[in-house]
Automatic annotation (TrEMBL):
A GO cellular component entry from the record: cytosol
Database matches in InterPro entries: AKR, AKR_Detox_Biosynth, NAD(P)_OxRdtase_dom_sf, NADP_OxRdtase_dom
Signal peptide as annotated in the record: none
Protein's name according to its UniProt entry: Aldo/keto reductase
Coiled coil regions, renumbered to chain: none
Example GO molecular function: oxidoreductase activity
Source organism, top-level taxon: Bacteria
Organism: Erysipelothrix inopinata
């Protein structure tokens, strides 16, 4: 499994990370098998959020790691906060951030997070407050690095004006069937839907500023509309995936991840499978090196038009 440094940090992460959003309805024994499959596949990165399963995903994961007697320093753990489910708001207030991290660490039974992300942009954000919260978390050793999720480049600039630490991650939805991050770049100045830049040049901004983009829901079309792999509603892209799966002797899932991995921005793919066999199949992405033509063939099979 390819590894690279997350943003400008010293965290050496696997190119595939395991997203634990769907761990809440697994037993601890099942979670142990899932985590073991990830570790056996050289996946060393685990993504959480305080809202996954209303905190249950973190509880199950924490218990599993404890029972597996895994050395904390052998794995990299990220969680997110900023969605306040109690009062139904997005909340980047200092008080909410600090309280959320204490609760996350308690659920995980751990004393630090490698990375904390702000989950969804808070329209009422006060960057100075975020900066104060991050400084307290850093100084107390509770969080090593910080980042964001679903933010535009200007939102990051706004935060970064006050936040001392460099933000190292922006986690965004990105897949073969949901690709606005790259679509606009091939349609600059066109009066078409793909030409709409929804993130203010996030891919280029991330490359210029050494921010790692993490791709969430890599197998989904639309916003949780449908998993496109092995789905008869998406025949063209599945034919193209199968062709390359046969060529590289891997599964279609591995090719779908290889399409993300081929982008030179060093995007980390956060997969959400809770199936140990599928996780092992996905990790075979290491055996794939897509050519430029193969990347574009998949992009076109996903319904995109190149002029
Ligand atoms: N920052 C954000 O706003 C945000 C939003 C959403 C998610 N996330 C993060 O991203 C992670 C991944 O998201 P996700 O779980 O939606 O992504 P995903 O990896 O695209 O989807 C995984 C789901 O698809 C199912 N699936 C069914 N057939 C599949 C196939 N042929 N290939 C692959 N998967 C198949 C999996 O089932 P099996 O379990 O049976 O494999 C699993 O339930 C989450 O766990 C979370 O950590 C972040």
């Amino acid at each position: 499994m390819r590894k690279f440094n997350l943003g400008t940090s010293d965290l050496e992460v696997s190119t595939v990370g395991l997203g634990c959003m769907r761990m809440a309805n697994k037993s601890v024994d099942e979670a142990i098998a899932i985590i073991q499959a990830a570790l056996d596949s050289n996946i060393n990165f685990f993504d959480h959020a305080d809202i996954y399963g209303d905190g249950k995903s973190e509880i199950i994961f924490g218990e599993a790691i404890k029972r597996m007697k895994i050395d904390r320093s052998d794995i990299i753990i990220q969680s997110k906060c900023g969605i306040n489910k109690v009062d139904g708001t997005f909340d980047f207030s200092k008080e909410h951030i600090l309280k959320s991290v204490d609760e996350i660490l308690e659920r995980l039974q751990m004393d630090y997070l490698d990375v904390l992300l702000l989950h969804r942009p808070d329209a009422l954000v006060e960057p100075e407050e975020v900066a104060e919260a991050f400084k307290i978390l850093k100084d107390s050793g509770k969080v090593k690095y910080f980042g964001v999720s679903n933010q535009s480049s200007m939102m990051i600039d706004l935060l970064q004006r006050s936040v001392e630490d460099k933000l190292i991650v922006n986690q965004m939805q990105f897949s073969l069937m949901h690709s606005p991050l790259v679509d606009y770049g091939m349609n600059v100045n066109m009066a078409t839907n793909p030409g709409i830049d929804r993130s203010q040049g996030m891919i280029e901004y991330a490359r210029l500023n050494n921010i790692t983009i993490q791709a969430w829901s890599p197998f989904y079309a639309g916003f949780f509309e449908a998993v496109f792999v092995d789905n008869d509603d998406y025949p063209e892209v599945n034919v193209a995936l199968q062709l390359l799966a046969d060529k590289y002797n891997v599964s279609k899932e591995a090719i779908a991840v290889a399409w993300i991995d081929r982008h030179p921005a060093n995007i980390q793919t956060i997969v959400g499978s809770m199936n140990p066999d599928r996780i092992k199949r996905i990790s075979k992405v290491s055996n794939v090196s897509l050519s430029r033509k193969e990347w574009y063939d998949l992009y076109k099979a996903a319904g995109n038009i190149l002029l």
